[in-house]
Design a protein that fits this description.
GTP-CH-I_C/QueF; NADPH-dependent 7-cyano-7-deazaguanine reductase; two-stranded antiparallel sheet; four-stranded antiparallel sheet; 6 strands; EC 1.7.1.13; cytoplasm; preQ1 synthase activity
C-alpha cells in the first residue's frame, strides 16, 4: 500500500508528485515541509548542492557555490523537490555570497523550525578570492553526531 503525502503541513498542496513551474525568484519559491515520522529521535539530515548558482549583484556575472545544509529535524522535514526548486530560483537572482548563504539558511529555518540547522556556502573564486560563508541556528542538540561538511579549503575545488 503506497502512502500519499500528508496535507497536514499547513499548505494547500505539496509540489512533490506533480508538475510545477520553476520559480524565477527566491521570494516566489515555495518550500514544502512534511511531518517527521521520527520526531522523537535526534538525527541529522544533510543536503548537498554542489552546483548552486546566483548572479553578482554588481556585474551580473554568474557566481557558483557548493552548499552544504545540515539540520536536526523537529516536527517537520524539508521536502527535497521544493528545496531543488528553491535553490534553482537563485540562478537569475543578484545577491552577494554572504546574502545568498544566510538567506537560504534563515528561510529553511523559518519554514521547518528545526532543532538545529547550519549552512556552509563554499563559493568558487572570482577575482582570485574564494569566499566561504557559514551560518547556524543556536547550538547542536546534546549528543548529536555532526560530521564535518567535507568541503576542503579552496585548492581548485572539484
Amino acid at each position: 500500500m503506497s502512502k500519499k503525502p500528508s496535507k497536514s503541513n499547513n499548505s494547500p498542496a505539496l509540489q512533490l508528485g506533480r508538475a510545477v513551474e520553476w520559480p524565477d525568484t527566491p521570494e516566489k519559491a515555495k518550500l514544502d515541509r512534511v511531518p517527521n515520522p521520527q520526531a522523537d529521535t535526534d538525527y541529522l539530515v544533510r543536503f548537498t548542492a554542489p552546483e548552486f548558482t546566483s548572479l553578482c549583484p554588481v556585474t551580473g556575472q554568474p557566481d557558483f557555490a557548493h552548499l552544504m545544509i545540515d539540520y536536526a529535524p523537529g516536527q517537520w522535514l524539508l521536502e527535497s523537490k521544493s528545496l531543488k526548486l528553491y535553490i534553482a530560483s537563485f540562478r537569475n537572482h543578484g545577491a552577494f555570497h554572504e546574502d545568498c548563504t544566510v538567506m537560504i539558511g534563515k528561510r529553511i529555518a523559518a519554514e521547518i523550525k528545526p532543532k538545529w540547522l547550519r549552512i556552509g556556502g563554499y563559493w568558487y573564486p572570482r577575482g582570485g578570492i574564494p569566499i566561504d560563508v557559514f551560518w547556524q541556528t543556536g547550538r547542536v542538540p546534546k549528543g548529536m553526531w555532526v560530521p564535518e561538511q567535507g568541503v576542503a579549503p579552496y585548492r581548485g575545488r572539484g
